Amino acid sequence: MILYLKDILELIEEIAPHELSEPWDNPGLQVGAPRQQIKTIYFALDPTFNSIQKAIKYDADLIITHHPLIFRSISRLSPDTYPGNVIKEALGHNISIVSIHTNLDAAPGGINDILAEMLGLEGTEVLKGVPGVEAAGLGRIGNLSRRMGLRDFLEWAKGIFGLSKIRVVCDSLDRDVGKVAVLGGSGGSLVSIAAQKEADVFITGDIGYHDALNALSHGLVLVDAGHFSTEDPAYRIFGKKFGSMLRDRGFEVEVLLDHEESDPFCII
Questions:
Q1: What is the pLDDT along the chain (268 residues), one digit of tens a residue?
Q2: Same-domain status, 32 and 87
Q3: Residue 213 maps to which CATH number?
Q4: CB 201, CB 153: distance < 8 Å
Q5: How far are the Cα atoms of 40, 142, 170, 189, 195 from residue 217, in angstroms, in the given order?
Q6: Contact in structure between 8 and 33 (CB atoms under 8 Å)
């Protein structure tokens, strides 16, 4: 069955409704027309110039990114700078761009549920719910299958997120971990909620100085695994699932995942 962009937008709305997105966010169609036929989809975390070049290389018709290309109103565009260079290449090669951002973070089965599954959490609940929407919201919290020492947990977590180093806020490494909260991307604003829900550890990214002090005041171990590393592996898993959903509905489509994206930050 032929796949059109409108079919993809409808499926996205079904699994991650726009109403779940944060007020400041701009998920959805960024570039393109709903009537476009789609044969190849390229999944990338970010809509960078490098990502659009890869999509061109693989003859993709659509890039689905986690982070939006356009976050706020644009007063001018230049083909020489971002995001104008990406838009120029997309339009020139008939490539549409769609993002699924905080609506996917909050959705059941979305980024944070996938992270909870990666960590093997049991009895998982939403960390900060969306009023009136069951099982949806930011972050997840649940229990490990067995308690373990913090040092061992951190080594295990580094493996899960593909990290050689990890930032940790705690008053002592000599403690046990049983209840874990996780939020992909930037979760410093939920430190107090994680503490109120009696998490032993909260894993997220983009931790600020005052977030760290807040965690210490609550006796909460705060793990900054980075914005990129707490989203990229989960987003690639979602990309595979999305491709399966389309094929299960009878659509003929090839889904490609970007395995070469990397964290813009490096530790020397």
A1: 999 999 999 999 999 999 999 999 999 999 999 999 999 999 999 999 999 999 999 999 999 999 999 988 888 899 999 999 999 999 999 999 999 999 999 999 999 999 999 999 999 999 999 988 989 999 999 999 999 999 999 999 999 999 999 999 999 999 999 999 999 999 999 999 999 999 999 999 999 999 999 999 999 999 999 999 999 999 999 999 999 999 999 999 999 999 999 999 988 8
A2: yes
A3: 3.40.1390.30
A4: yes
A5: 50, 22, 10, 15, 10
A6: no
pTM over 0.85: yes
Taking each helix axis from N to C end, the angle separating 49-57 and 84-92, rounded to the nearest 10 degrees, works out to 10
The total number of structural domains that make up the chain = 2
Please tell me the total number of residues recorded for the chain in this structure: 268
Q: Chain centroid to CA 69: how far?
A: 15
114, part of any domain: yes
28 in the Ramachandran plot: left (φ > 0), alpha (ψ -120 to 50) or beta? left
Helix (H) or strand (E) holding 222: strand 221-224
